[in-house]
Amino acid sequence: MPKLKLQQTSFTAGEISPKLKARIDVSKYYSGAEKMRNVVVLPLGGFQDRPGTRLIAELADWAAGGRVLPFAFNTEQAYLFALTAGQFRVWRNDALVATVGSQPWTGPQARETNRTQSADTLLLFHKDLAPWRILRGGSHSSWTTGAAPLANLPTFDFGSGAEAVISSTRGWPRCGSIYQGRLYMGGLRSRPSTMLGSNVGAYFDFDKGTSLDDEGINVTIDDDQVNAIYQIASGRHLQVFSSGGAFAALVNPPITPKNVALDRQTKRGIREFVPTIEVDGATLYVEKSGQTLREFVYDYTEAAYLGPQSSLLAPHLIRTPVALAVAQSADDDGADYVYLVNEDGTVACLNTLRGQEIAAYTLFETDGKFRDVAVLETGETYFVVERTIGGVARFFLEKLDRASYLDAAVVYASGFPISTATGLGHLEGKTVQIVRDGYVETPQTVSGGQIVLATPAASSLQIGLDFDVRVKPLPAEGKLADGSMIGRKARVVKATLRVQETSALAVNGVAKSFKGFSTDTTTPLDAPPPSFTGDVIFGGLQGWSRQGSIEISRPFPGSLCVLGVAMELAVSA
């Protein structure tokens, strides 16, 4: 019976489509996995459990529709906006600082809003609403709103004489962006293929004048198909994304009324209402079908933009996204994490580092459904999550928090010792996990918005919902003297995992205790499970299959970080 030793030291291809399970000729096969759930891939090769989420607030009016947006007043003052029917709320440092009513949008319109920002001003766009301006005043709670004071708008003859191309009668722009000192607005409701550019340095003045270089711009995509403009992005060039393709103004700067031209770069259109994001020199966008994430990246050899698939190896994780955001790296590993909120309530998480050809997708799941995402300039990431509590759908604003092992968690920072944990109304009737002073307690069911601890918490306490962390490498494939492993039964005899600062680890459902791994002889036996760094061996594994592999999981709330896996297999003749 042949014996085989295999190792996998990189997971930087992420979860790979089931349709690639036989592509043992592709190098990405050996750095990918069959399943990667509720983990993030590390750019240096390993993976770790995703952060939990911490409760920030309940959004009681979100059921009618809404959108969360980031706003940066300066490098030190970042805000989170939540737009819902007729109002918006503002958070700073996770505290609600303002609620502003008398806003013109409905819930569905809030959900379809696009945005751009200049200094202290946030501009919102919707085809049925005049562009809306939000300005921050002299404090965190001071906000002024109103329709943007547009002037000298170009006209068009719709059949009864010249009239402004945008108005309460003809509708408004779908999107906008600021580029080279102009405000560009596109996707006009009555002229969906038209884009307007303001005078230079005067964002709300669209006077065409005599077409001097700094005067207003009015350009329409002239193409062989319908191109309703859905997004405008400021990158290496001015980029315009429509229902029928992606365009760029490839003119020598600056863009002027006389040289402006939108050249088609690809016929792959964009999904409406999902914004673009810039990552490592490329603009990412969700294709119109909702099944593909594409890069829009300039190629110097072609002197044009290309639109390759970013999600080529993991199309099964792109499930009609409704929101898209990126958290740019603040660490020395240089990784950016892209979050795609899928229509089914999952989140496809992409770890991307284009310079190293890293594009690793994993999937986030929770007890509920993710509905929206926003990332602040500081890198703080917020999700809107729908959870069923007492048979009723409720919506919560939750923040990714590496210090939390749980979702929808309440982390108690004061009041110790704590015997009765309150403030759990958002989890009423749910069975929750309890991490007390580093111990994982017996789960309890929340009643009356609280639970009573079996042992009072002395210094730390977090309570929330557990989430399933699970990674399954692709079927083992090694070189045998008499041919391929495909079609043969195999059994993993022993698995060795190299881990870092890990306290919760299981292979094939068998949990490993780290009590005996501690080198600290002064630690009492009743201390919380320590974290361990080193090699962990799982022997005596049972079970033959035609796809020899193991499944790595987190058996209880704790830390898990795997740097590499080695397996010894027995292979049938």
Summarize, please.
The chain is an all-beta fold.
Describe the structure in your own words.
The protein has 573 residues and is mostly beta strands. Among the domains are: 3-50 and 469-571, Jelly Rolls (Sandwich), CATH 2.60.120; 120-131 and 141-267, no CATH class; 407-465, no CATH class. It has 1 helix and 49 strands. The strands form 12 sheets. Strands 1, 4, 5, 44, 47 and 49 form a 6-stranded antiparallel sheet that branches. Strands 2-3-43-48-45-46 form a 6-stranded mixed sheet, with no helix packed on it. Strands 36, 38, 39, 40 and 42 form a 5-stranded antiparallel sheet that branches. β9 (87-92) and β10 (95-100) form a beta hairpin. It starts with a strand and ends with a strand.
Q: Which whole number gives the mean pLDDT? A: 93
* Rg calc: 27 Å
Total helices: the number is 1
Total strand segments = 49
Just name the CATH architecture of the domain at 3-50 and 469-571: Sandwich
- C-alpha end-to-end distance: 6 Å
CATH class of the domain at 3-50 and 469-571: Mainly Beta
- Residues in helix, %: under 10%
Highlighted features:
Jelly Rolls; 1 helix; 49 strands; 573 residues; 6-stranded mixed beta sheet; single chain; mainly beta
Secondary structure topology:
Layout: E1 3-8, E2 14-15, E3 32-37, E4 39-41, E5 47-49, E6 52-58, E7 66-74, E8 77-84, E9 87-92, E10 95-100, H1 107-111, E11 114-118, E12 121-126, E13 129-136, E14 143-147, E15 155-157, E16 162-164, E17 175-179, E18 182-186, E19 194-197, E20 217-220, E21 229-234, E22 238-242, E23 245-248, E24 263-266, E25 277-279, E26 282-286, E27 293-299, E28 304-306, E29 321-327, E30 336-342, E31 347-353, E32 358-364, E33 369-375, E34 381-389, E35 392-401, E36 407-412, E37 418-421, E38 431-436, E39 439-440, E40 444-445, E41 451-457, E42 461-465, E43 470-473, E44 490-502, E45 506-507, E46 510-511, E47 532-539, E48 552-553, E49 561-571
